Every structure is written in C-alpha cells, then in structure tokens.
Amino acid sequence: MSSLSLKPLSVSTFTSVNPKGNLPPRCKSHYQTERGHQFDVGDTFFRRESATARDLGVLSAALYRNTTGSLRVLDAMCGCGIRSLRYLAEAEADSVVANDANVDYREVILGNLSSVSSSSRWEVNHLPATRLLAECYVRKDYFDLIDVDSFGSGSSYLRVALDAVKLGGLLYITSTDGLSSGGHRPQQSLAAYGAYVQPLPYCNEIGLRMLIGGAVREASVLGYHVVPLFSYYSYHGPVFRVLLQVKRGKSPSSRYYSFISYCNQCGNSQAFSWNELGEISCPCSTNVSRSLMVSGPLWTGPLHNAHHLTEMMSLAELWGWLGDGEGQNLEKLLKLMIDESDPKLPVGYLNADEIASRGKLNLPPLSAIMNSLYEEGYAVSRSHIASNAIKTDCPMVDCVRIVKQLQQPAEMSSCH
Ligand SMILES: C[S@@+](CC[C@H](N)C(=O)[O-])C[C@H]1O[C@@H](n2cnc3c(N)ncnc32)[C@H](O)[C@@H]1O
Ligand SMILES: [Zn+2]
C-alpha cells in the first residue's frame, strides 16, 4: 500500500507507488468488456449497469482535455479501476490517480491499468477517499477531474473534493440516497445536504437537485460556485450522478438555490426564493397551508448545460458510440437531456398517472398531450428520469383541462 508524501504527484512518484511486491492474495478473475476494453473485475464491486455513467464521465473528460489541454484525474473510489482505465485510454488523461480503500482490489486494479497504459501515467492508492483528497489539498496538488463514485449520500466528500479540484475543473459526484430524495428522512437530508425534503411526485429529480444543492452550499463556503454540466438519474440503485464545473467566486445569483412547493390539492409546483418564503401560497386557494409541501433549499436551475451535452453527443458520434448496439441508449439519453435543458422548463415533471387520476381520464399518448401543450405555447419535453412523465411549465390544472379538450373530439365522434 502506498503512503503519500507531501509533494505533488509526479512521474517518479507514480513509479515509486506502483510496487508489485507484498500484494494481497490474488482473487479469481472475472472478465468483462466495456467499449471494447476487456478488464478483470475479480471480486471487486462492479456494476455493468453503470456503463452509461462511465460513458458520460469519459466524454466530458475528453471534452475538457480538448479545451484546456490538460487532464489529471483522481478516481477516488475506483473499484476494479474501469473508470481510471477509460479515462486513460479514451479521454487520454495525462495522468490518473486510482484509489480504492479496499487494498484487496490492488492486484486487479494494477492488472487493468497495465493493460492500457505504461505505469508512468498512473498510480494506485488505498486510502480513505477523504484522507487522500485532504492530502492532495494540503500539498496543493489539484486535479482537473475528481470522480467520487460513492455509496450513500456522498455529501461527506463534497468539501474535500472541492478543496482538491482545480478552479474551472470538474467534479463527478454520486448519491445513492433514495430514501432522502423520496422525502422519507427529512432530518437526514437536512444533515447531509442542508435541504429539508418532503415527499414529492418527482422525487428522483429531487435526488439530483438535492445533491447539486449540497455542492452549491459547500462551494459557497469556500468562495466558489458550481454549475451542473449534466445530471443523470439511473433507476438501478437508484443512483444520482452529477457532473459539476467548479468556478471561482460566489454565484452571480441565488435564484437557482431556492425552495419548491407542491400543492397536494391541485398538483401545482412552484419555486420560491428565500425572500418569498413568507408568501408561499397556491393559485388554487388562499387557504392551502395544509396542502402545501415545501422542500429546500435545493438547486432549482437547469439540470444540464445544453451546449456541453451537444458537444458530448458530437464526440460520441465521432467515436462511433451512437450507432452501435451499446450506444443506442446513450443517444436516446443525450437527446432527452438536451431537451430537458430548456431553461423555460421549471422544477419537476407531471406524471401521466397523476394527470389521469386528477382529471379522471384515460390518457391519450404522451406525444399527443405534448403536442397540445406545445401548441398552447408551453415549454415541454420528456424526462430522462421518468418515462411516463412530461416536463412542462404548464400547471397541472391547465394540463388536465388541455387533455380533457384533446379527448372531446374523439368522444364526440364516437357518439355518431
Ligand atoms: C460504487 S463502487 C465503485 C465502482 C467503480 N467506480 C466503477 O465504476 O466500477 C465504490 C467503491 O468505493 C470503495 N470505498 C468505499 N468507501 C471508501 C472510502 N471511504 N474511500 C475510498 N474508497 C472507498 C469500495 O471499496 C468500492 O469499491
Ligand atoms: Zn393548489
């Protein structure tokens, strides 16, 4: 196991921390293939379903390298090392520090990284991520991309990861805290992210907004601000992942760090800034205090940066990732995310089942509802988070009315 000295990591440091001696006993090999790379997962924690999350990270890393000319990566919880391998081979990282607290993974990681690159570009560590990140910060060894693929809320890594990332650099963070995003543990979400979260119909979008909001708060303590380049929910887990760009200075506006209200009576959602807190109400009634659920503060801005996603799409196409069998889902996902990036779209989405039950309707296809909303001048898109939902700035009450109108001609023609 390596011990880090207080000096910037360098080529010679990499060599010195890659000894093959004193390795733990070799575990059984289990080979997998991802984007043409064969690698061993041994007995490490590995999820094939996370391949798309790795695709998104690698595309973003490569774009960052193309723009800035440098890419030093810290993969703080690397498992078998597949991300490190892909950052080296596909994003052409200048160097990668692969770390996993579990020293029993060492031989698997070393074998996988050796297969794609000479050891002059990488090193392997087995420290608790917090300690590794803190040590990097202490010796002013900053990284272009820090990937923290953690279990649980991930919030305890935010501050140290922000400390160790370059200004302008990227932070790829993860939460698997589905109970907090579902509003089932408001005290826990308050402790982890500084957000009091109550149950909302679009809880999985809240999971992303809670994680971004937590990073916004931690960054502001340090005098920085963060903006999401993409936010990705995946149902296995569930897993909430966000790629943030870290920027110098306080956020120019606090309008995207605010509160969300949901009215159980009419299904309407609204965002409220801090100075509107005392005026929270719902257009459906003047006396809705019992039916209003308020959560926050959370990130209430766009979940993604459309320009970044468009560049990711172009690069994925260039690399042949869109046309092959593996890439079909990636193409669909990126298109959905680009649509979701419309700044006119507010927080949340309308679930088809909720529209149907509030309107006591059998719903027409979502595409027909979306066309009608669009013709009435509303912003509208699908959600990458919920396939049976619509993102729109149309309030629930108006959406139900529009769907009822949409059904009238069909009902009238069936009378003849
Ligand atoms: C979700 S898995 C990582 C999977 C990997 N990134 C991938 O894409 O296949 C999380 C990893 O973090 C490691 N881990 C857990 N707690 C840690 C800590 N405090 N510091 C560093 N590694 C830790 C676990 O051993 C596990 O391999
Ligand atoms: Zn209402």
TrEMBL record:
Report the domain of life of the source organism. Answer: Eukaryota
Acetylation in keyword set:
no
Keywords attached to this entry:
Methyltransferase, RNA-binding, S-adenosyl-L-methionine, Transferase, tRNA processing, tRNA-binding
* Ranges annotated as spanning the membrane: none
Where do the coiled-coil regions begin and end?
Answer: none
- What Pfam families would the database entry show? TRM
InterPro entries, per the entry = SAM-dependent_MTases_sf, Trm1, tRNA_met_Trm1_C
**Molecular function in Gene Ontology:** tRNA (guanine) methyltransferase activity; tRNA binding
Which GO terms of the cellular component aspect does the record hold?
A: nucleus
Q: For this entry, list what GO says about its biological process.
A: tRNA N2-guanine methylation
Give the similarity note: Belongs to the class I-like SAM-binding methyltransferase superfamily. Trm1 family.
Quote the protein name from its UniProt record.
tRNA (Guanine(26)-N(2))-dimethyltransferase
- What organism is this sequence from? Nicotiana tabacum (Common tobacco)
- UniProt lists the gene as LOC107829593
